[in-house]
Amino acid sequence: MIDIHTLLFASVTARTGFILIFLIASFRSEARLAFRFWSASILGSAVGVMLIYSDPNYPYFLAARGMLIYAIIGISLSCIWAGGRVFSGGRVNKAVFAVMGLTPGLVYGGARFLGLVPDIVVMLTIVTLVASTAIAARAFLARKRAGYLPSQLLVSVALSTYSLALTASLVMIAFRLLTPGGVPDLQAADISLALFIDQLTSVLIYVGLVSMSLEDVQARMKELATTDPLTGLANRRGVQEQTSALIAACNRAKRPLSVLIADLDHFKSINDHYGHDCGDMVLREFARRMSCLCRRGQDVTGRWGGEEFLVVLSDMTPAEAVCFAEQLLKRISEELFDIGKQKIAVTVSIGVAGFCSGVTPLAVAVTAADEALYEAKRNGRNCVNCVVPGTTPPQAHVALAVESQGPVC
């Protein structure tokens, strides 16, 4: 078996390598503050490991030395927790940080000064470390944007495993106290095993933290490529990516599908008269009102280009989609848009198209909805017009030019 000194050297060396990587990331990565916390955590754990496993009295340290060791380990866990909070967009509560960091050392030192049995002292300290480790693991279960990053789960699992290992030590000590002589004292092999588990879980945690940063950058790049920065809706590429899965699912289930294109009336006049900043405010507010009507997880919404917006409605026939479009029409026209210094009236024209027989490609349905939209514009704007792809011209344009005062549904 590998001796303790070799394992200790390997553990400290590995941590040193990660410290260098994390220090670089703390200046160049977007998650700078998180990496600064994590760099401090690795440094603390390296020092703590050296002090723990190089002490001949392990795990029954002298009061002052044990207090120092467990304070270092506690602060290391606090830094991991704080980095996880910052990475997920949360705040670092200074009181929680201080309690997590100082409690293990204070418990050990206080219990030793009170003259408690060494095993009891160690058990009480381990309880605080288990609690701190569990809190740190929970910080990595906070959702990042739409969901979890895989590496977040890796870090959380590694921390949870470390917590379970500490709990196992707690159980063994308790068993020793209850059955004197039933469990032998610590041997070199036991210390080596503890050091090996510490090294394994630490490497998993540090690799997971680096992976989190890389996965987050990739997710940001994908989000930028598929999201309209002004409204926060999907852009044309994002709509196409999201809709492909929706169309496939509806085709398999033979469920209806409809698409609508909404175009703000006289939007150029708004820009010319009030300025582009006010025009942007109108676009954002329109996107908000439209999103409020849509069903999250069922419909796809996006900014198709300029002042045009597109919605793909699952489980809706063209007639049902017209009802939806009419509700949107009323929501836009009946409430003035606040552009800062004043409020203005805004109207919208909407073209609706159904997916013929459930097999119409998105491009065909969008073209049909676009034709219906132009028909709505010709009909005087502020109305809804519907067309079904694949029908002959006389049947195509259904008489659904709806004024905002006369609901269809």
In DSSP terms, counting alpha (H) and pi (I) runs of 4 or more, how many helices? Answer: 13
The overall pLDDT average reads 85
**What is the spatial order of strands in the main beta sheet?**
2-3-1-6-7
What value does the Rg take, in angstroms? Answer: 31 Å
What structural category characterises the helix and strand content? alpha+beta
Oligomer class: single chain
The coarse silhouette is: elongated
The SSE string, one letter per element, is HHHHHHHHEHHEEHEEEHEH
Instruction: Please report the total strand number as a whole number.
Output: 7
- What fraction of the residues are assigned to beta strands by DSSP? 5-15%
Q: The biggest beta sheet, please?
A: 5 strands, mixed
Beginning-to-end CA distance, first to last residue: 79 Å
How does this structure look, described?
- With 409 residues, the protein is of the alpha+beta class.
- The protein has helices at residues 4-28, 32-53, 63-87, 94-113, 118-139, 150-178, 188-226, 236-253, 267-274, 276-293, 318-333, 362-378, 393-396, and strands at 257-264, 300-305, 308-314, 337-338, 343-344, 348-354, 384-387.
Features:
5-stranded mixed β-sheet; 409 residues; 9% strand; 7 strands; two-stranded antiparallel ribbon; alpha+beta; 64% helix
Give a brief outline of the structure.
By secondary structure, the chain is an alpha+beta fold. It contains 13 helices and 7 strands. The protein starts with a helix and ends in a 13-residue tail after the last helix.
